[in-house]
Structure formats: C-alpha cells, structure tokens
Amino acid sequence: MIRDAQYYDFIAQGLAGMGYVEGGRASLEMYLNDMFAEKWNAEATYANMGFPLDPDIKLHPTYEQIEATIRPYTMAAYVDYDSDGPSKSVDGIMLKSGEIPIFKHEVYLDRKKVKEKMAITDMLGGMSNDIVDAIMALFFTAVDDLIGGNFNTVQFQRHQIVGNEGKLVINSENNPYGLPLEIDFGVPSKNKKTSVWYTKAADGTVSQSENIGSTVKPIDVARKIVEDAEDNDFMPEGHWECSKKTKKDLLAMPYFREMYALAVRPDITDGTTRVAWSNTIEEDIIWQYIQNRIGRIEVIDAIGSVEFINPKTRKAAYRNIQAFKEGVLVYVPNGEIGSVQSGKPVWIDSGNTRSALFDGGRTLIREIRDGEHMTIKTKSESQTLCVPKSTRWFYYLTVMG
Asked: Long-range contacts made by residues 305-310, C-beta under 8 angstroms, separation at least 24?
C-alpha cells in the first residue's frame, strides 16, 4: 500500500462526510462559506468601520486613494431654449496610488495529534470516523484562527490610519516577522492641532494642565475645530473618535466635572463644594455631558495582538498593541470615510494541496499535507488595504502632553 499524501488526506474524507462531495476547490469553498461566512462577514464588518469593501478585486493589486465627491446639491444653470445645461462632474480626484501590501500567516495542526491519527490509520488500514472528526475539529480551529487574524489585521489598519494622522506604520513592534512599511495618506498640516489638557505618569496617573479653565478651555477648543471644519472646509456632519484610554483620561480631568456642576448646579457658588459635589456624579453622565457640548464621540476599544518568539525563553509570546493612538481626539465625517481594497490571489496547486477563496475571492485559504514534517498545514494569504478618502476632512487634536 502506498502511503502518500492522498492516503492521509483526512480533510477530503471529512469534507465528503459533511456532504461536500464536489471535490477540490469547490468542496473547500462551500465548507468555508457555510462555516465562517456568517461569523466573519467582511461586507458588514468593514462597512460598520466606515470602510466598505471595494467591489473591484484588482488583478494588478494597486490601491487608489480617491477624493470623495461629497458636495452640496449645486443649482442648475439658466440657459436659452436651444442650449443644453452644463454637465456636472461625476468622478473623484485620485490623490495617491501604490501597491497593496500582502499579509500571510499559517497554522500547523497539532503535530502530535496528527501523527497519532496517521499511526492509527496505518494500523487499521484506513480512516475511522473518529479520526476524521478529530482532524476536522483541528482544521476548523486553524481556519477560524487565520480568518479572525485577517479581520483583526484589517481592523488594526483602519484604526491606526484614522488615529495616526492618516498614516499606516508597520514596524517591528506590530509586524515582528515581516517587512517594515509606511503609507502616508496625506492629512493637511492645518488639520493637526495640539492643545495639552493633561499629562500622564508612568503609573497611569492623570494630571490636568495648570492653565485648563483659564487660558485653555477644552470645550471651546474642540468646538472651534468642528466650527472651522463645517464653516471653512464645508465638511459634512461628523463625529469624534478616541481610544478607550483617552476616554478614561478625559474623565479623570476635574475640568469637565466642574463644567457639569456649573451647568447643573449654578446655586453651588463655593468652588470646593462644587468640586466635591461633581465627584459624586457617575462617569456615564459626565461623558454624555462632554458629548452634548462638543459632539458625539465614538470610543475605539480595539487591540491588536502580535505573536513573537521570546528571545529569552525561546517560546511563543504575545504582545497587545493599542490600535488607536492614545491622547488624540479625531474628528471625521459620519458614514463612509474610505474603502477596503483587495488584490486577486494567485496560486498553483499540487497533489498535496487544497486551495479555496473566501471573502468573495479576497482571501486565499490553503490546506497542505506536509510530508516533510508529517502533518497538515493551513495557510492564509490576503492582499488587502484600508484606503481612506477625503483625508482633507480628518482633524486631529492632540490633548495629552
């Protein structure tokens, strides 16, 4: 009996047992869509981030940053009976283009378990249902891990670009096994303002700046940014975004509690008494007050998790990274502020591989029967980038010194 890659093709047996009998790519794609399309719904997830999927999957994976054609309803022109009206522009203006970066990762199914199942298969002279079920459970977990990691990668892109002055910075901290990369999508310098409201010690203690409430009034500073955006730059309706840490820091400032006390209890004239009373108010109420004064604030509570090898222990370790920059308030338009653009995957299959596409053809999933290591490897590959539009309407207020 020849014990080749086909002999140990547990995944083919598992797919067939689940009713996916078309074979090859078709069976695996049907499995992926049935098992993961609802949980990992790229269309809905990315649209909620303000970056819907670009329906065009590019054969030549080049992204295009196009200035949005959001504009008022311009008035018609008065002409004579025999003349046509002027044609209105319909196309955006390309601001930047470049190659879409590619990201990959892979998971080896538990080698010990796979080898055990291979040994049992040899002993029995074939696969049992229990063996196939065990391997398919490992395969499901591996694919779920890879697709979930891809979604987190795109989410990290989005939040870093929006929170970091329109820049995507990939470095050794957030990409320890890959290449460095930086893309600047071009936020105007006039849209970047610094007004130090507080500083933060290493232990997390927030200290409000001494000039807050006298020469620097945070509410007025933020409202002025919104006012200038709408009146001078004709920005449509927008909202603020900040990290979860920044929200906590703002709530730790006495200023906002004092302003709330002045608005709600003007009868308390003694400053010490007013501060004491304001400290009894729940944080949710203070946070809502801040939003009532400067506009809605969307709190970004997203963390990117990176796996790396600890040089001391030589074991896998994990590092959590804040996706959205701390100490910054960002004012952006509501709704769509960019798109997720992807390139078309290209691959070559061999006798020991099984490949399929996910996310409407944007993600390549491959199952490889690895004869060298006598195990099964699952790989993922995607060439995808969050590309913002209308960065002229991205406004940055750095508040932490």
From this structure: 305/152, 306/173, 306/174, 306/175, 306/176, 308/176, 308/177
Token digits of residue 119:
């040994």
pLDDT in tens, 8-20: 677 888 898 899 8
Report the pLDDT averaged over residues 324-348. Answer: 96
CB 212 within 8 A of CB 218: yes
How far, in Å, CA of 222 to CA of 228, rounded? 10
Q: What are phi and psi of 356, to 5 degrees?
A: -160, 160
Q: Which of 28, 23, 20 has its CA nearest to residue 366?
A: 28
Mean pLDDT of 287-297: 98
User: In whole angstroms, what is the distance from residue 275 CA to residue 279 CA?
Assistant: 6
Task: Tell me the CA end-to-end span of the chain in Å, nearest whole number.
Answer: 71
Q: Evaluate if residue 122 carries a pLDDT over 60.
A: no
* Closest of 360, 361, 335, 367 to residue 346, by C-alpha: 361
State both tokens at 63: 């992204």
CA distance 235 to 226: 9
Mind listing the domains of the chain with CATH numbers?
A: 10-69+91-184+339-386 (3.15.30), 189-302+394-400 (no CATH)
291 in Cβ contact with 216 (< 8 Å): no
* Among 145, 221, 185, residue whose Cα is nearest residue 393: 185
Contacts of 302 (CB under 8 A, 6+ apart): 155, 156, 159, 322, 323, 324
Q: In sequence order, what are the beta bridge partners of 169? A: 182
- Res 117: pLDDT: 60
Looking up tokens 């892109």, which residue turns up?
Answer: 157
- Rounded Cα–Cα distance for residues 83 and 85 (Å): 7
Collapsing DSSP to helix, strand or coil, 99 comes out as strand
DSSP 3-state of 394: coil
Residues 241-251 pLDDT 10s = 999 999 999 99
Model pTM score: 0.86
> For residue 169, what is the DSSP state?
E
Could you tell me the two tokens for 93?
A: 């203006």
DSSP 8-class letter at 216: B
Cross-strand bridge partners of residue 192: 396
User: What CA–CA distance (Å, rounded) separates 316 from 306?
Assistant: 10
